[in-house]
Amino acid sequence: xxxxxxxxxxxxxxxxxxxxxxxxxxxxxxxxxxxxxxxxxxxxxxxxxxxxxxxxxxxxxxxxxxxxxxxxxxxxxxxxxxxxxxxxxxxxxxxxxxxxxxxxxxxxxxxxxxxxxxxxxxxxxxxxxxxxxxxxxxxxxxxxxxxxxxxxxxxxxxxxxxxxxxxxxxxxxxxxxxxxxxxxxxxxxxxxxxxxxxxxxxxxxxxxxxxxxxxxxxxxxxxxxxxxxxxxxxxxxxxxxxxxx
Length: 245
Fold this sequence. Notes:
This protein has helices at 2-9, 21-31, 48-58, 73-79, 94-121, 168-174, 229-244; strands at 35-38, 63-68, 86-89, 126-131, 134-139, 143-149, 152-157, 160-164, 180-184, 187-190, 194-198, 201-205, 209-210, 216-217, 222-226. The chain is α+β, with helices and mostly antiparallel strands. A five-stranded antiparallel sheet has the order 8-7-6-10-9. Helix 2 runs parallel beside helix 3.
């Protein structure tokens, strides 16, 4: 089609065109493209927005440009959290699309350079996160848990909360997995903070907070994190081994 021809003119040799989100996920799993032009209206059970959410669970660094006739506020509000590089309403001209693609790829290149530098700084006992104009060192022992937010994640420590511009899977690959362990698709927790198990939940100890009258707020001392079935047995074994050593 016309878009495929335009991409080839821009130097893309391996161009795939699929009608459904399910097929797009298969292509991404096999080839991990650098750029996806995504229509919101697709064949199959997944629309374009849901497909991008699934793609970002494994590949947060793929540039997404939406092309669609749909432009109502409800749909667009669902699209924004997927952090696309651009949204181009149909119909569009080739020049507009060409510029959007070049901007997206240049941004992607700069982000990769930044990530390489950040990855080099990750250590077993600590790692660095961006805080304003600084790179702040976080001690791994101070981490409480991380929660996935699609293409990024929230890092909660004893000293506060940080937003990381990498997804949970990428973070997991880079840190000390003896201490920070995956317990669900959405959560990584600090195993050393576990004080109890309650059904399929891990109870973590948290910094003590005080009420306005100075008394201890007991409700703030513990955090309950759900554990997925596939992670529960391994986590319990890890915990039992830790207690027996």
